[in-house]
Amino acid sequence: MGKNKTELLSTEVRHLDIKKFDFVTLIDQMQDTAFQARNLARAAKIYEQMLTDQNCGVILCLAGSLVSAGLKKVILDLIDNNMVDAIVSTGANIVDQDFFEGLGFKHYQGSPHLDDTQLREMAIDRIYDTLIDEDQLRICDDTICQIADSLPPRAYSSREFISEMGKYLEKHGKNKDSIVLRAYQKSIPVFVPAFSDCSAGFGLVMHQVAKPDSHVSIDSVKDFRELTQLKIHAGDTGLLMIGGGVPKNFAQDVVVAAELLGAEVPMHKYAIQITVADERDGALSGSTLREACSWGKVSVVHEQMVFCEATIALPLIAGYAYGKGSWQSRQARSYSSLFTSKQRELA
Amino acid sequence: MGKNKTELLSTEVRHLDIKKFDFVTLIDQMQDTAFQARNLARAAKIYEQMLTDQNCGVILCLAGSLVSAGLKKVILDLIDNNMVDAIVSTGANIVDQDFFEGLGFKHYQGSPHLDDTQLREMAIDRIYDTLIDEDQLRICDDTICQIADSLPPRAYSSREFISEMGKYLEKHGKNKDSIVLRAYQKSIPVFVPAFSDCSAGFGLVMHQVAKPDSHVSIDSVKDFRELTQLKIHAGDTGLLMIGGGVPKNFAQDVVVAAELLGAEVPMHKYAIQITVADERDGALSGSTLREACSWGKVSVVHEQMVFCEATIALPLIAGYAYGKGSWQSRQARSYSSLFTSKQRELA
Amino acid sequence: MGKNKTELLSTEVRHLDIKKFDFVTLIDQMQDTAFQARNLARAAKIYEQMLTDQNCGVILCLAGSLVSAGLKKVILDLIDNNMVDAIVSTGANIVDQDFFEGLGFKHYQGSPHLDDTQLREMAIDRIYDTLIDEDQLRICDDTICQIADSLPPRAYSSREFISEMGKYLEKHGKNKDSIVLRAYQKSIPVFVPAFSDCSAGFGLVMHQVAKPDSHVSIDSVKDFRELTQLKIHAGDTGLLMIGGGVPKNFAQDVVVAAELLGAEVPMHKYAIQITVADERDGALSGSTLREACSWGKVSVVHEQMVFCEATIALPLIAGYAYGKGSWQSRQARSYSSLFTSKQRELA
Amino acid sequence: MGKNKTELLSTEVRHLDIKKFDFVTLIDQMQDTAFQARNLARAAKIYEQMLTDQNCGVILCLAGSLVSAGLKKVILDLIDNNMVDAIVSTGANIVDQDFFEGLGFKHYQGSPHLDDTQLREMAIDRIYDTLIDEDQLRICDDTICQIADSLPPRAYSSREFISEMGKYLEKHGKNKDSIVLRAYQKSIPVFVPAFSDCSAGFGLVMHQVAKPDSHVSIDSVKDFRELTQLKIHAGDTGLLMIGGGVPKNFAQDVVVAAELLGAEVPMHKYAIQITVADERDGALSGSTLREACSWGKVSVVHEQMVFCEATIALPLIAGYAYGKGSWQSRQARSYSSLFTSKQRELA
Q: InterPro entries of this UniProt entry (chains A, B, C, D) (predicted)?
């Protein structure tokens, strides 16, 4: 490669801004074509329907490396403009990437053809064509440990802990463009059901090892309980899913969980998923939304899979919905408040 | 479809038995061909190397719907014959599918072309071409709830809870061919880092809602702590990964976690992954094992991706290693004992 | 389905117009993100480089069902604005879809979930989510037969025959938006190396069976000879490839063919490919452009694969190059004239 | 890389021998599992049905780099044991790979991670993880040119020319394990509808340029005519398709072509395809066999897609059919004789 660490980490990933284009005309035209362009247009229009449906809460599911890939501002625009009411994510997006950037760190443009053994020696971590300074990631781990150290020892949902991370960034953050921060400020709950499977896990392991007898623990059942409570409260819901994995499964499952608790809730009324996976391996990530209907999770009336990589598809879908402007008359749900005032009722 | 529930649920999925074939000759021949056959042969031989390496602990990672797809007996043969020392899995495999079968229930052969709305009305759940009786799945959820009800309220790792599930099956199970049961009996720890993201979540939510003040919680940090402890104890390790997702990430991450705790541990010395995902979307599931090297998780010396669906690839790889017979002189690690005797030392 | 043929064939596919949108800002922003958005931006910029390079002839390769999918106008804009100098395509795009539309027929929006047995009974042909009136396709076959009947019997290259199809449309066509027509009028040669593998094959088989002793034949060697001649004449060349298959292979191969004829020609200087295929099966369609370098066909300096379905990716790439406007000062190559005046020199 | 050409070309690809393994038990077990293992088993059984159906002619379609990947002996076993009656292929398999090996040359094991620029300098061509000596490939091109030089100048179908290649190998070949040779000897016609799109193209271009006024040409319409004639003669037919591309389309199309010529022929009664492509891009290679039914080409009663790379799937499917042994009572069709004796009747 012939480049040193400073040279390799010189070109930042910049976050795409959907507010600078007119995606409405483009999507309207794609609607009349075929294949994935038509699927993408159909998905964009279903998302727009979710936003115009006054009774519908919107749950955004995030899997894959979206924040490091330059999609953070897209997600921030959804948050800022009342286009999303709850978030279910992998830990990588929320902690390693978003909280990490909130601490003032950056992601850098690289190449999939770099020599990984040499990167290892330079303490540079690679995600496909994106590079991270591993030393900075260790600071992110440590910060999680510090936050845990500062909290009363008990079982937390990931949502509660992420809320604390938002509070931390409000005081100590160096970059206000953070999903964790902005969601905290707008009372949008963020769930990471596999919370220890990321930088948060490193920080919390250090915390628990240092405090063996009394420490913060993360109860993923509590997450499930809270998201179910949210579904019961919300009634009609729509899913905007980027990638599959745990967030997709978790968010779909709450319909069944609510039923088990005796609540009569509708299936997710709207559901769209952006993915490159397909159904052939029987795994959840590529399973069709029609299959989810057999499980009683998703209605088949307004569902659409879009087989396209997210860095291309999400800006177009989100940009269309932004451009249509119906978010302007949409109310913020502030679902986080559910878990302070009403938590005791259900729990 | 024109079939009723009994007709649709009439042909069982049966579990493939690798002990009935000579896969050694086949793999030896595939070794000299090309493309995925050669990759598969190379992976099989790396797995065999793990087993002959006396100092290497083998971690099996399971993602996707493997048990319902007829691969349970393959995994049981690995357990029974000291070919695997720890398991990291999605909840679906361990609870919804394996524990479910341990309770005496079955999976059924269906088709991806069935009408999901009609399946929903009959309470039949579909996974690609496989069918499940939803009423039986509710019994599985309830059983998890009962197990939780019977335990002292505190924070458990998923490993601890799954161990209790093994104990339950030993007493009340109706099918001895169970990964949960057999791993329990052989002291092989089973981790499910996103434990509430499956039938276990349903049972545990019911448990917690019924016992709001004092209940079992699942601390995923404790899982991470325990698996890290296992890595520190094991020294050299090899990963046999089916699919990607949380199990892949979680198992790879323990190398870094061990370093953060001050332990000097080697990267995973061997790593193979069976998947149909690819690297193009930057997501973890399809990320190359070389990329994992940049993160200091996996050595590039003995690594191999196999791009093939698991129902075809796993029997060939496992069957080859079984056929070679080096497991006959391999010692059981009984890693579960680490967490009873030595837990206090680290924790 | 419950719909009759008229109802099923009621909503036309409409062709997307790249001139209505500012793709330049979008691509410039995608350039600084990651994954396929960055690959797409890089490809768009390589295409723009081809157009600003005064010495570079641009060869467009078309595989997959692009015209029926609503991408015809994109391709027409490339033709009209001197953004492409030669075309190598599958027969489906040129005959079944473009010539078919030139005759006044349309493609219709459908769904991948329709019942194919019922479609068969109604004589409706399906391509994923697009529908075709089979009776109209038979008229297309017949027209090819009539054109063949009108020509002097001898061996033709596909280019020669397609040129005759352009002449036919000029006189008898009912829709001036046709690649075959417009390429004919602008002296842009169109090659279909597997010419009988489409509606043209049906028409020509009828022609030959009716005239067993003296008829038109299609010599694919002549195609290869002509495209090689074009490469020798053009010198520097760039490939804009949509999909893989025969067009990709054929266009790459001319570099080697030229060398075998004793001409010193450079490898293709620029090459981009839009595809969803990957390299794992060792097939040509997904083979990397770096692999093509080992064969001496493509330079690795300016090459980019974009892993995205073409209905989404092509408008963005073509729209960027259109928006940059360097085509305004670019000269038409009129390569078709090579084969009238200079043919004898080489042949 | 640090290796020279001799070192890089030192380990031969060896051809897998299906006769050494009991695939019947394996496939019977896969039949009761799920996902692609069950699809593969179903495909194997459909192929076996084709062979037991006394009235069914079997057409083998070959796309992708199968011969260089070590699958040649599998195909030879199908030929030798009356398990295939006609072949439709890409040129790469038949000329660059099989005829090439017939001349005594070999393919070598390499790696997808080699440096293509260095390979280019050493005149080594790469196909994923397989290497070819480019100097030997030039000899293959030249041999095609010599064969063309020796033939009376006229329009040939690819089948006729490939038959001449078989004759050549019978006299001058250095390796009797050749599809071209063995098919010639068994009167099994081999069609390559895009014949100039391979090493044959190079040789024939040299031939035509050297003999501008009177030369061999390859009429792909004649191929289509002949294959249609074969279909009319055969009546019931089954397709065993490896990969997609031109061979898949061409072989499917003959049903329609036969109808256009006034013959009443059944759709292909059986059809199986091994591929890693999927339907999402609307291209032919991954289009479902159900979609082909809407075109009137393939019956949906006995059809199966297998989503698996061919080096793994083909040995299992072919090995199962071989192991079942019904080929022992199957008659050779010797379809090549159709084109000598009966050609005039239709043409």
A: Deoxyhypusine_synthase (IPR002773), Deoxyhypusine_synthase-like (IPR023496), Deoxyhypusine_synthase_sf (IPR036982), DHS-like_NAD/FAD-binding_dom (IPR029035)
Q: How many CA atoms lie within 13 A of D245 on its CB side?
A: 34
Q: What is the mean pLDDT of residues C78-87?
A: 98
Residue C36 structure tokens: 């396929």
CB distance D33–B309 less than 8 Å?
Answer: no
Q: How far is residue A275's CA from residue B197's CA, in Å, rounded to a whole number? A: 20
* 3-state DSSP assignment of residue C240: strand
pLDDT surpasses 60 at A341: no
- Minimum-distance CB partner of A194 among B119, B194, B290: B194
List pLDDT tens digits, range B306-334.
Answer: 999 999 999 999 999 999 999 999 999 99
Give me the residue from D16, D276, D310 closest to B30, CB to CB.
D16
Q: Which residues of chain B have a pLDDT value below 70?
A: 1, 341-347
Task: Look at the block and give the residue holding tokens 């066909």.
Answer: C297
Does pTM surpass 0.95? yes
pLDDT on residue D340: 82
CA distance D341 to D233: 13
Query: For C115-130, what is each residue's pLDDT tens digit?
Result: 999 999 999 999 999 9
B297 is catalytic: yes
The per-residue pLDDT for range C132-164, each reduced to its tens digit, is 999 999 999 999 999 999 999 999 999 999 999
* Nearest-angstrom CA–CA distance, A208 and B343: 13
Q: Which two tokens stand for residue C181?
A: 């027509």
Mean pLDDT, residues C80-107: 98
Q: Please state, rounded to an integer, the average pLDDT across all residues of chain C.
A: 96
Q: What is the DSSP annotation of C161-201?
A: HHHHHHHHHHHH-S-S--HHHHHHHTT--EE-TTTTSSHHH
Q: Could you give the CA distance from residue D38 to residue B129 in angstroms, rounded to a whole number?
A: 9
Q: Strands across the sheet with B190-191, in order?
A: B190-191, B86-89, B57-62, B237-242, B268-275, B298-307
Residue B278 touches partner D, C-beta closer than 8 Å: no
The Cβ-side half-sphere exposure at B289, using a 13 Å CA radius, reads 27
Give the pLDDT confidence of D214-255 residue by residue, as tens digits. Answer: 999 999 999 999 999 999 999 999 999 999 999 999 999 999
d(CA A229, CA B197): 16
- Residues C169-200 pLDDT 10s: 999 999 999 999 999 999 999 999 999 999 99
CB B304 within 8 A of CB B272: yes
How far is the C-alpha of A315 from the C-alpha of C82, rounded, in Å?
Answer: 30
Q: Do D70 and B37 touch (CB under 8 A)?
A: yes
Confidence at A2, pLDDT banded by 50, 70, 90: confident
Residue-averaged pLDDT of chain B: 95
Residue B281 is nearest to which of C35, C280, C281, comparing CB atoms? C35
Instruction: Report, as an integer, the average pLDDT of A29-41.
Output: 98
CATH fold for domain A17-346? Deoxyhypusine Synthase (3.40.910)
Question: Using CA atoms, how far apart are residues A183 and A170, in angstroms rounded to an integer?
Answer: 11
Residues of D tagged active-site: 297
| C-beta neighbour count of B24 within 10 angstroms | 18
Q: Residue D134: which residues within 8 A CB-CB, separation 6 or more?
A: C295, C296, D123, D124, D125
Q: How far is Cα C347 from Cα A130, in angstroms, rounded to an integer?
A: 51
d(CA C195, CA C179): 16
CB D224 within 8 A of CB C198: no
Q: Give backbone dihedrals phi and psi of A252, rounded to 5 degrees, phi first.
A: -70, -35
A280 near D CB under 8 A: yes
Residues 20-39 of C with CB under 8 A from B: 34-36
Backbone angles phi, psi at D118, to 5 degrees: -70, -40
Q: Are strands A190-191 and B217-218 parallel, antiparallel or unpaired?
A: unpaired
Q: Where exactly are the structural domains of chain C?
A: 17-346
Candidates A38, A39, A301: best to mutate against C (most CBs of C within 10 A) is A38
Query: Cα–Cα distance between A185 and A189 in angstroms, integer?
Result: 10
